[in-house]
Design goal:
Layout lengths: L1 E6 L2 E5 L4 E3 L4 E2 L3 E7 L3 E7 L7 E4 L2 E2 L2 H18 L5 E7 L9 H16 L6 H11 L3 H4 L4 E5 L8 E6 L7 E5 L9 H7 L6 H20 L3 H20 L10 H15 L5 E3 L6 E5 L1 H13 L4 E6 L4 E3 L5
Parallel strand pairs: 7-9
Antiparallel strand pairs: 1-6, 1-16, 2-5, 3-4, 5-10, 5-15, 6-9, 7-8, 10-11, 12-14, 12-15, 13-14
Helix pairs in contact: 1-2, 1-3, 2-3, 6-7
This protein binds (3R)-3-hydroxy-3-methyl-5-(phosphonooxy)pentanoic acid.
Amino acid sequence: MKATAIARPNLALVKYWGKLNQELNLPLNNNIGITQEGLETKTTVEFLPELKEDEIEIDRKVLDKEKAKKMVKHLDRIRKLANFSTRAKVISENSFPGSAGLASSASGFAALSYAGVKAAGLELTKKELSILARKGSGSACRSIFGGFVEWVSGRTDGGSYSEQIAPPEQMDIKLLVCLVPGEKKVSSTEGHKIADTSPLLKCRLSSTKENLTKIRTGILEKDFSTLGKYSERDTITMHAVMMSSSPPLFYWSPKTLEIIKKVIELRESGTECYFSIDAGPKVHILCEEKNLNEINREIKKSGINTIISSPGEGVELTNKHLF
Ligand code: PMV
């Protein structure tokens, strides 16, 4: 059987950095993301009895054994659920650059989970799908749902999953993705492992509690200023933990800092916007529709290409297969 799914990455407003359990991908703190329309991963999975090994292709490149490992392990989870051992052919395409802080692993594992489960003939609830996707890549569990999504950290496998706080159309918010060049040298998987070497981790974790409360309320009350202010603050404390861990992790490039300063300048001159940065040099700028064109023009003046994104739908099936 064959199935194709489309998933979008998600931008965390309250981020997670550091895990309670590395194997199960249990995060240290609850976190909230926005699933992003305008960026997508499309994945087709077919289980074929004639295959001796899984065959995996991403963006027209066949993955070697080492690079395919995480996805093969995820297919093993699906095979275990379906109680068969048939190998699969997987083809996946991203509409955006991977390995650069644009969460291609989130949309990738969300799409692989849904397409894989359907191709295996299984029926899972969205909650179960979210638990499965989480084991592939933590933040993938948020991309199962659309709009504004909270990942409940939990302390057990079955207790750690995402749920929707509000649908995509809840509020007027735009995400301007600033494509600062450069690839991250340390993966988030490796970074999470050393979060607890930072003397600032405890302090950050206590601040995430307030950030969560304010951002949840910001979403429900459609209060863009509160949402933006606390999400920017969350980004800064996460990067303070990264920079003060051992070894220290600096995901920013000089251009990242240039955009941060531009955002602050724009805000001081009356154009409300906030920055958000994951484990990579790229910057997301949060703003309302009315200010989008002005901000986009300013960023482009610094020679940076952008993608405009807004809250989008969760994972979905399509009948347009990739092979
Ligand atoms: O789940 P991972 O391994 O992709 O880690 C995600 C880490 C951040 O993007 C930095 C934060 C987050 O919550 O998305």
